[in-house]
């Protein structure tokens, strides 16, 4: 009898582990993410494709006419690269306005790649990037346009490599 109940306990334990494993969501690392909201907080996962908030190893794209806001005091946003207005007819905006809020992009910020882009940085907010390009590309079938506004006390867009 003892062997049978021990075997049953092992089987029940294995079954429970299997159920727990099967019900645990698998978190996948993303390398690219797209803004899906019209206007909202950069740090809200619901505003990004797949719930993937950009980090230092993620390329971020805002090309749906939406506006990502970094508006809370001391809020930091990161991305490997940031593209506002990737394709013709598309547009994207980032507003950095929280006191001492910060955007850090290791690579390039494209403000209007082949589409239209707007970057606004206001008082006591900052953006740091490895590079920047405004109205990046023009060709026979498209003309990109971009606008970057840095306005107010201690507002800055600085480059670093």
User: How many separate domains?
Assistant: 1
SSE class: mainly beta
Order of helices and strands: HEEEEEEEEEEEEEE
Flag low-confidence runs.
23-27
Query: Which value, in Å, is the CA radius of gyration?
Result: 22 Å
Strand content is 35-45%
Oligomeric status of the shown chains?
single chain
Helix content: 10-25%
How would you describe this structure to a colleague?
Helix content is 14%, strand content 43%. The protein is built from 1 helix and 14 strands, in the order αββββββββββββββ. It has one helix at 2-23; strands spanning 32-34, 39-41, 59-62, 67-70, 76-79, 81-84, 91-96, 102-111, 116-122, 126-134, 138-139, 142-143, 145-151, 156-159. The strands form 3 sheets. Strands 1, 3, 5, 6, 8, 10 and 14 form a 7-stranded parallel β-sheet that branches. Strands 2-4-7-9-13 form a 5-stranded parallel β-sheet, with no helix packed on it. It has a two-stranded antiparallel sheet with strand order 11-12. The protein starts with a helix and ends with a strand.
List key phrases describing it.
single chain, 161 residues, seven-stranded parallel sheet, 1 helix
How would you concisely characterize the structure shown here?
The chain is mainly beta.
List the SSEs and their pairings.
Layout (H helix, E strand, L loop, with lengths): L1 H22 L8 E3 L4 E3 L17 E4 L4 E4 L5 E4 L1 E4 L6 E6 L5 E10 L4 E7 L3 E9 L3 E2 L2 E2 L1 E7 L4 E4 L2
Parallel strand pairs: 1-3, 2-4, 3-6, 4-7, 5-8, 6-8, 7-9, 8-10, 9-13, 10-14
Antiparallel strand pairs: 11-12
